[in-house]
Amino acid sequence: MTKSSSRISLKTVGLLLLLSGVFVALSSGAAQATGVGPTDIEVKKTATVTGTVVSGVITIKNKGRNLAAISSVVDTLEVRFPGRVTPPPLPPGSHDKWFQVALVPGLQAMPNPIPVGATVTINYSFDTCDASDYTGAEKMRNVVSVTLINGPHGSKTVTKHSDDFEPPSQENCPFCGDGTVNQSTEQCDGTDLDGQTCVTQGFGSGTLACTSSCTFNTSGCSLCGNGVVNPPEQCDGPNLNDQTCATVGHGSGTLACNSNCTFNTSGCAE
Q: Is residue 138 part of a domain?
């Protein structure tokens, strides 16, 4: 075999291996998309406000020549405060003087990897009543960061934000202290115990209350009345803890239990 034919054979083998890698990558999804080669994406986003809800669209376009494998889509709400206002303790945003007040959950690119020339559209919606308190903010925007595994030079994150808009008022949003159980984080609110009592909370009697943080206050509840003798109870309802008039120092008769879980010996004889 000549040197020339040897070189041709090596090139042929290399080409076959390359094509084989491409087909494997195409059939194996996002995990193997980097085997196809580098690509690039274009990200855009919009935001509109309806009441307290911010909603809009995120678009991710594969503008390269290979599949685009997306590893994450992170979407947040950010606010900016006037210079005269001291911002509350909030996480920093994507740029200086912007602060993060919410993370929009559950967003992902579908399909993933994104075919060549295709555009993926992701709809999002978030109620600002569920955001952190941003009282005093003058501007709000929605920000998305999309991470591409096989970027032009490796992993690449593209961050885009919507136009600024006036932050929706949180004045009428449900909050702990408004007297109504209207949030998933609230067990109660003021006198609204959401239909719960000491008994439904596993106690036998007493008065259930609510703390200022909208959690149950069971300090007024008692285990007395649940039918189980718990120290320092002598008895509980019909449960006399295997005691009789004789065992408690009385000759005979019928031992009973008071409502405060102490023995009632009025039916016993000396």
A: yes
Give the separation between CA 156 and CA 238, rounded to whole angstroms.
71
pLDDT (tens digit, 9 = 90+) per residue, 137-164?
A: 999 999 999 999 999 999 999 999 999 9
SS3 130: helix
C-alpha radius of gyration, the chain, whole number: 34
Q: Is residue 135 included in any domain, yes or no?
A: yes
Range of the domain at 121: 39-161
Length of the chain measured in residues: 270
Domain with residue 106: its CATH number is: 2.60.40.10
Amino acid letter, residue 116: V
The token pair at 188 is 């109660």
Within a domain: residue 172?
no
H runs (alpha helix) in the chain: 3-28
Residue type, 64: G
Q: Kindly report whether the global pTM for this prediction surpasses the value 0.85.
A: no
CA dist 109 and 215 (Å) reads: 38
